[in-house]
Amino acid sequence: MSISGPAIVSQPGKQVTVTGIGALCATGLDFERAFTALFEKRREPSAPRRFDLEHPTIYPVFELPPSPLDSEDENQPWLRTSRLALAAAREALEDAGWGDGKGLSQLKVGVCIGTTVGGSMNDEQFYRDFRDGKNPGLKPIDRYLRSNPAAVLAQTFNLHGPQLTIVNACSSGTDAIGLGASWIKSGLCDLVLAGGSDELCRVTCNGFISLMISDHQPCRPFDRQRNGLNLGEGAAILILESKQLQKRRNQAAKASILGYGSSCDAWHLTAPHPEGRGLSQALQLALNNAGTKAEDIAFINAHGTATQNNDLTEGKVIKSLFPRTPFFSTKGHTGHTLGAAGALEAAFTIAMLQSGKIPASAGFSEIDPEIGLTPTKCCENLDGHLALSQSLAFGGNNGALIFGLDGAEQ
Amino acid sequence: MPMAIRGIGPVGAFGAGLDEWRATLKGERKVEPELIAIETEQGACNLPVFRASTSPLKAIIKSRELRRLDHFSKLALLGALLACEDAGQTLISERTGLIVASAYGASATTFSFLDSVINDGDVLASPTLFSNSVHNAAAAHIAKYLNITGPNLSLTQGHLSVPMALITAAHWLTEGRVDAVLCGAVDEYCDVLGYCWQSYLNRKTTTTRKNLNPDLKPCGPGEGSLFFWLSRAEKTNTPYAYLEKIEQNAPEPTNKTLNDTVPLISSPNTCHNHLESRISQRKKYLQQDLSQYLGALPIITAFDLAVAATMLSDQTLYSNKPLRHPQSLPFSGPAICCWQPDYETSRKPLTGNCYWITNRVNL
């Protein structure tokens, strides 16, 4: 068979609209509060509240504000990651006019969720007891097996379509939305709950500290003095619907998903390709998929973790492909929420398109000459109706989504 | 859109590669599981575990390049390399996708990372172990070794991991994102899993998670990987077989829906006896019980489909547990149907995933 030809993936198919958003993170327990806080200067990462770490330095994290979600009752049916996803899904369904979601069982509805912690069997106390020969009970294992995030949402809302939990590390949320959109384009689903969710946990915190990429100060994405990331937690779910369903329901669309591209650096387990080879490829695919050009993009919601490697690579690619496009990172407000990050940032991107303004890139103060670009330093008004949200990930994964205000289809 | 299965890379307790695979299907292999001492609340026992060796990798890759890979990634890499070799296709980096499905991920490495925390303290947690414990580490290693720069997906969905991987591969091919997908599944054994397995067995309940509950199928846990090289169907260059469609939430096929299709029941990783009694009411069927060579695996579906593809390619019905068919019956197709009931739901009547595999498609 022919395997040559241009890497163009723009294809006809059903249009995909976003009709509802639900999200929670350190900046707020619902999407409105979480989004509004991005335009404020206040940011307060602090030592983890729900667990202890034994390091000589405090590595601050962006934890959710206290809420009933914090309950660690051993009879909780699901892990925190799935509980966060469920809270976001309920808000998103309500926002999309689906109420408690009961009407969904008559449709082809899929669930596509990105996570990192939510897919790992890593209950530390269970393992300590196991090592000590204490024959621990299986409640933590039962809970882990019950807690696959996509399965939890599918079971809760009685959904019969495909269910998929993506574990592509930090690009999981972006990929979940991209794949969910493809299910609608192909006709596999009428509606998809797509997004990401991740909780803060001791194991992950220790892992990132061991990699020496955690900052002991509030993170500073794209800044010359940046010194690593702060972990965060949260969830974001988008309700994706076919244009036909959205119109039939007479439900307003917040935005359309116009393009998705993904790639792998195939370079290094923990470091991005130094010239951003994979990211450039994913971006080009997303632009081709959307049938648009780089200069039509009004702004970029960058991955911007504040690690040396990520921001340098990402900055180089932005400079090369989008030299005049405003860009910023929201991780200075939310921390790096790992599997939720791409979804959270996609949700913010849509809300920014709708509001017509973008925030300052929190934590930035001094240009890095190696990058040679300055992210937004203050709130700016938008000129355009297309936006890009992009993620880079451990393992060299890259994902990019292009959103357009409804009616902005090419 | 039908997908062409052009390469298969199997790894399990039976061995690695197609020679071992075919010998296994013919019933020429006898696999002795390793007996691992497990201590549970109910006392000590020896659990039969079907471990898989990754030693064939050493003949392909320099040991130096393998030194930072954990067992999970080696299992996946070996399966992926074997599938590539078997397909014999030119790999074009940007036009090839990679999918790695796993029910539990690199669980042994995750617990080894916890060992480093518990033994040495938070400050000395191992970065190497942490890196390899991340779910998509195996996919990253494969992509790097084979220079696959197309879309790269790691997923975990319990017993649905394999069908979701295949559905994603079909979407990528249909959308034109790629021209080929290296799509596979991997899971490994670890001590904690053995402890859970035996504890669930002791619990003797059918209401708990059946992936880890061998209550109805006491063979012992296994590990392994199986990768497919998939591409769009084309008129020339006949593949093993075509995966024509995957039906989700499908009822059990009837004689009417099956028509000339042979129903294959292989390696039921859940309720073996139940399935056996149901299928015995059918006028024809084939059973290939891989559990004696692989142990029980949540990703067994990948092996089931490989059984079907191999039989269609070899024009032979291999059956190591024939109830009505003799072993190695000549077979010219045209199709095999694998139905895997979903015992995780309480839906009545029972539904499941139905895979239709054929040796010809209309193009």
Care to describe what's here?
The complex is a heterodimer of chains A (410) and B (363). Chain A has a single domain (16-405), classed as Thiolase/Chalcone synthase (Peroxisomal Thiolase, Chain A, domain 1). With 410 residues, chain A is an alpha/beta fold. The model of chain A is unreliable at 1-10 (pLDDT under 50). In chain A, a hairpin with a 4-residue loop joins strand 11 and strand 12 (397-405). Chain A has helices at 31-36, 80-95, 124-131, 139-146, 149-156, 172-186, 202-210, 243-248, 277-290, 308-321, 331-334, 341-355; strands spanning 16-25, 109-114, 163-166, 191-198, 234-242, 255-264, 299-301, 327-328, 357-358, 380-381, 386-392, 397-405. Chain B has 363 residues and is of the alpha/beta class. Chain B folds into 2 domains: 3-232, Thiolase/Chalcone synthase (Peroxisomal Thiolase, Chain A, domain 1, 3-Layer(aba) Sandwich), CATH 3.40.47.10; 241-358, Peroxisomal Thiolase, Chain A, domain 1 (3-Layer(aba) Sandwich), CATH 3.40.47. Chain B contains 12 helices and 15 strands. Chain B has helices at 18-25, 63-66, 71-87, 107-120, 127-133, 137-146, 161-175, 191-203, 255-258, 272-279, 291-294, 300-314; strands spanning 3-12, 15-16, 34-40, 43-49, 96-101, 152-155, 180-187, 224-232, 241-251, 262-266, 286-288, 316-317, 329-330, 335-341, 351-358. In chain B, the strands form 3 sheets. In chain B, strands 1, 2, 5, 6, 7, 8, 9, 10, 11, 14 and 15 form an 11-stranded mixed beta sheet that branches. A two-stranded antiparallel ribbon of chain B has the order 3-4. In chain B, helix 10 links the parallel strand 10 and strand 11. The longest helix of chain B is centred in the N-terminal third of the chain and has 17 residues, at 71-87. The termini of chain B are close together. Mean pLDDT of chain B is 85; it is low at 205-217, 267-283 and 322-326. At the A-B interface, helix 3, helix 4, strand 3, helix 6 and helix 7 of A face helix 4, helix 5, helix 6, strand 6 and helix 7 of B.
